[in-house]
Amino acid sequence: LKCVGAQSETQLTAATGSNGAEDSAADRPAWDSKIQYVLAQVGFSVGLGNVWRFPYLCHQNGGGAFMLLYIFLLLIVGVPLFFMELAAGQSIRQGSIGVWKHISPKLEGIGYSSCVVCFYVALYYNVIIAWSLFYLGNSFQYPLPWHHCPTDLTINGTVKECSSSSPTSYFWFRKALNITNSIEESGEFNPIMTGCLLAAWAIVSLAMIKGIKSSARVMYFSSVFPYVVLFIFLIRGLLLDGAMDGITYMFYPRLEIWGNVQVWRQAATQVFFALGLGYGSVIAYSSYNPVQNNCHRDALMVSCINFMTSVLASLVVFVVLGFRAKTTALHCVAENIGLLNLKMANESHQPWLPHFNMTDPSSVSIPAYREWYSQYRSFLGPTITDCNLEEEMNKGVEGTGLAFIAFTEVMALFPGSPFWSSLFFLMLLNLGLSTMFGTMQGILTPLMDNFSLLGRHRTLLTVSSCALGFLIGLLFTQRSGNYFVTMFDDYSATLPLVIVVIFETISVAWVYGTDRFLDDIEIMLKWRPPVVYKYLWKYVCLLAMVGLLAASLLRMIFKRPTYTAWNQQTASETTLEYPSWALAMIISLIVFASLPVPIGYIRSVLKSRSMRATPSPEGAGREMHRELYTHCNSTDQLESNSHHAPPQEDAGHHRIGFLPVCNEHLNIFHVVF
Predict the structure, then answer these.
(1) Annotated binding residue at 463?
(2) At residue 269, what are phi and psi to the nearest 5 degrees?
(3) Residue 267 contacts residue 66 (beta carbons within 8 Å)
(4) What is the spatial distance between Cα 159 and Cα 166, in angstroms, rounded to a whole number?
(5) How far is the C-alpha of 280 from the C-alpha of 435, rounded, in Å?
(6) How far is residue 177's CA from residue 192's CA, in Å, rounded to a whole number?
(7) Please, how many CA atoms are within 13 Å of residue 59, restricted to the half-sphere of its CB?
(8) In this predicted model, what pLDDT tens digit does every residue of 317-340 receive, in sequence order?
(9) Do residues 446 and 115 touch, judged by C-beta distance below 8 A?
(10) Do 94 and 102 contact (CB within 8 A), yes or no?
(11) Is the bond into 529 cis (omega within 30 degrees of 0)?
(12) Is the predicted pLDDT of residue 620 greater than 60, yes or no?
């Protein structure tokens, strides 16, 4: 008997896409340098969520305690799964469809689900890039257009919606979005945002038109520039009054949050999305690496950079929020002292008379005012209020509220505000673009690997995908478009991606086998990763993902999905429930993204039954679905693998798949999933 260890079921069943198309290893594009690849992976994994989601979660969930929980989950779940995707893509040298189809044809639906989710994310992510372009274009004027409320000429006074909220809120909701009062009021298209969205898709298309060769050049700037800006903002922020209050608030640990299940769910979800697991982009990028690349070191390095970026962004956010909170509290003190001066003029009996200097409000500290207020509040009436710095800090904002309202408000107070504003939104633009490149690569690479026709027309596929993304993205440029962005962000990717990663883990840990997977990695790295990965993949990661899926489903079932709407009349945000048609849309998005997994399984089962019903003469002497218990020469096998030679019967395809290994004297009888 020949050594069947050299022919795992992945090799026996592998080899072609649905159109018989497989790129040869020699023709496959490759990174020009290691730094190019690292920048691409870092650029994809480090995105807008690191800047506006992670700081908010720290803010709301115990500060330093949440960071410790995040590090714990990153080490036992995030890094192992990230390493798994890197190793799979690098060894098989295919996109997400080809990788999971190679392991077992019944799992090819995993790759298609990843592509669908990537497309969902690309649709709304580019809208955020369009918003950044809009704000960047409005930053080159002084004063900034969101610094003061505009004048209503009909009443010769300030616009009511602006005076009832704030200049930054008014500019965001009325000037930028021109938003409706709810998702049920669609409104007409916003022409300015439509133009910005077209520009965003044009940038993505031009940057990716030549594949990784063109996008990698852009990565040198788009991946590095945000770090330069973050460090500049950190240095500038540390010089602001209130910066240390913000940092203290950020790091102060509240360990009681560890007993809250929802905090664990939020931490696990953030780890999951921060590393970009399940999108297929990590697999796509690693597939362009040489087989001998140390992907284990890459997994540790990128994960560490990602976490440190989140901490850096949190420092920047909290020093800015600390300055904003202190400025607001001092303004509150000054207003109240002005009211006290009026009160003194109208009252003869003044037992509440303060000990501080009322003629110079700027000299009154917040602690001094609060101490006086706590003693005499019963004499003051409702017009004089408390000025609590901590309450201002507790007004945490996330997402678009942080970037387009809180930060714009602070930057308007800086000397040279146009410079700081343009720098900030240029940073957001680059963060968004580097993530968009990875997201689009998660769509294009699997399709080109699996379909020869698409692979031969890379440019046309890229331009067509971007054009389709723009046309569907017009949904988000309506006046109600922001509500659909929120819907896609909250629901279109979370559950499908968790399902995808669960099946990825099952396919590697239980279908292909962790021992065989570690054998393949040993061939690549020339050393064997710690055995702890075997148990993390088989049990810890899988159980964590199943738990996250269950928690997310239960939350959706028991808490009706809601969204935050802007009410023009009250000039305030309100929480509304999604209407029935919107709930149906949410369910459709989730189902459509998850369906390829069962469809791929059913299709493969039916196809295998059909093949068994009509056996071919060539297949009569060869068992396609089993590996026999047999002896083999491990030395010869390892030697052949080191040259990556394809099996003789697959030589026509020149495929490099999971590296076959037979480093034990006995191969266990194995049945394909």
Answers:
(1) no
(2) -65, -40
(3) yes
(4) 11
(5) 13
(6) 9
(7) 28
(8) 888 888 888 888 888 888 888 887
(9) yes
(10) yes
(11) no
(12) no
How far apart are the C-alpha atoms of 283 and 306, rounded to whole Å? 17
C-alpha–C-alpha distance, residues 637 and 459, integer Å = 40
Q: Which residues pair with 576 in a beta bridge?
A: 563
572 three-state secondary structure: strand
* 43 has binding-site annotation: yes
How confident is the model over 570-586, as a mean pLDDT?
90
- Whether 654 has a pLDDT exceeding 50, the answer reads no
Rounded distance between C-alpha atoms, residue 103 and residue 277, angstroms: 18
Nearest residue to 279 via CA among 42, 73, 82? 82
H or E stretch at 524: helix 514-525
Is 50 a known ligand-binding residue? yes
Is there a contact between 389 and 326 (Cβ–Cβ < 8 Å)? yes
Q: Are 428 and 51 in contact (CB under 8 A)?
A: yes
CA Rg value for the chain: 29
Phi, psi of 627, rounded to the nearest 5 degrees = -115, 130
588: tokens are: 């459709």
Q: Which residues contact 523 (CB under 8 A, 6 or more apart)?
A: 638, 641, 642, 659, 661
Instruction: Report residue 534 CA to chain centroid gap.
Output: 27
Cis-peptide, bond into residue 143, ω within 30° of zero: yes
- Residue 662, amino acid: C
Residues linked to residue 152 through DSSP beta bridges, in sequence order: 157
Distance CA 419, CA 144 (A): 10
DSSP for 407-419, written as a single string: HHHHHTTSTTHHH
From residue 286, how far is each of 82, 93, 94, 396 by CA, in Å?
Answer: 11, 8, 9, 37
Strands (E) located in 492-571:
562-567
* Predicted TM-score of the model (pTM): 0.80
DSSP 567: E
Q: Which of 261-275, 347-361, 592-606 has the lowest mean pLDDT?
A: 347-361
Q: pLDDT digit string (tens) for 9-23?
A: 333 333 333 343 344
Q: Are 21 and 447 in contact (CB under 8 A)?
A: no
> What is d(CA 313, CA 46) in angstroms, rounded to the nearest whole number?
11
Structure tokens at 326: 């202190």
